[in-house]
Automatic annotation (TrEMBL):
Binding site for ATP: K15, H206, I207, G208, N209, G210, D282, M283, R284, G330, I331, G332, E333, N334
Location in or out of the cell: Cytoplasm
Active site residues per record: D146 (proton donor/acceptor)
CDD domains in the cross-refs: ASKHA_NBD_AcK_PK
Cofactor note: Mg(2+). Can also accept Mn(2+).
Signal peptide bounds: none
Coiled coil: none
Protein name, UniProt field: Acetate kinase
Annotated gene: ackA
Catalysed reaction, written as an equation: acetate + ATP = acetyl phosphate + ADP
GO BP term (any one): acetyl-CoA biosynthetic process
NCBIfam families the UniProt entry points to: ackA (TIGR00016)
Sequence positions that bind substrate: R89
Keyword Nucleotide-binding: yes
Species: Pseudolactococcus piscium
Amino acid sequence: MSKTIAINAGSSSLKWQLYEMPEETVIAKGLIERIGLPESVSTVSFAGDKQVVTKAIHNHTEAVSILMNDLKALKIIEHFSEITGTGHRVVAGGELFNSSVLITDEVAKQIEELSDLAPLHNPANVSGIHAFRALLPNATHVAVFDTAFHSTMPPVAFRYPVPNAYYDQYAVRKYGAHGTSHMYVAQKAADYLGKPLDDLKLITAHIGNGGSLTAIAGGKSIDTSMGFTPLAGIMMGTRTGELDASIIPYIMAKTGITDVSEVIDIFNKKSGLAGISELSSDMRDIIKSRDAGDEKAALAFDMFVDRIQKYIGQYLAVLNGADAIVFTAGIGENSFEVRKAIIDGLSWFGLDIDDSKNVVGADGIISTPNAKVKVLVIPTDEELVITRDVEKFK
Ligand SMILES: Nc1ncnc2c1ncn2[C@@H]1O[C@H](COP(=O)(O)OP(=O)(O)O)[C@@H](O)[C@H]1O
Ligand SMILES: CC(=O)OP(=O)(O)O
Ligand SMILES: [Mg+2]
């Protein structure tokens, strides 16, 4: 018996779970959310109790300190040395990492150097790695990459139509993200549908603060909406998703911004739901304001839904039809409003939501029995996938 902790740093959150392994028993888990927003919330569940603390948490380094402090203060563990394994979600592995690896000084450096491919994420992932390697010098530390699952994409999907030299010399290509989540919910969907994953065509929609859709055939990622970095694809909490690259020099010329990284920073951090609503990046806030009559929040909601519908349309084409669409992550798991708005607009494709199943706490199939393409809600478990990978190195 030994304890392993999985650390999942997202753009707005830090999720962790401490497991007794190999039993996969969850000893305690935590969710630090709304990082960087007013009223961040830290929730720890342990021994049947739930502690919820609301306070400003400015960045992921602060979130990691809170987590470490809680482990001892809440008596979840007596000594840090009880933790013999740590698994770290790393968003970008580039072409260097196609599977999980043991973290050495060299690997930690490489992950840091890959930050250009995930500027909101890899630096946060690295801060968790450094903190835990310093705290637990004798534990097994493993990096689990979001991009690994997408390494099966064919060139027709992962190449950009730019001159070949950019790929050949600089590896400019689509890498995707959220791979552990897409993989996990695809496997679960096969269980729900009662068919082998090998025989299924699925569209998985991981919709959180960051979000991506993946076309999965026979359990393999064949296309995904995130790109060279997690800026691409659907509209997100603070990110633009897809847009015409010509906008960049145009905005620079019009506004007088001279540093291109400033524009990219605006596209990463001040756009998406936050940019259109001028209110919040958080879908709960958007829905509340829309319902209260706020027009900008309503437009933000509608644009968000529109972009997801378009990717579903694309992937129905890429897969030449699909057996099911799976919703997961913060918004996909929790917002029946978002799910309904998306599916109601796709009835021509044989999608039909069952309102009595599309409710708070939905889990499993939420489409009607006659729907040609099934719709499912499956809570993701990136932490479990990460922890299982740590065990392979122990
Ligand atoms: N009950 C809910 N209704 C609507 N949206 C929700 C609900 N709970 C969480 N969300 C949304 O989920 C998003 C965060 O998703 P999450 O997967 O945790 O993000 P991250 O990308 O940081 O991992 C936020 O936009 C939040 O508003
Ligand atoms: C890659 C990415 O956007 O991750 P998250 O949704 O956790 O921010
Ligand atoms: Mg996430």
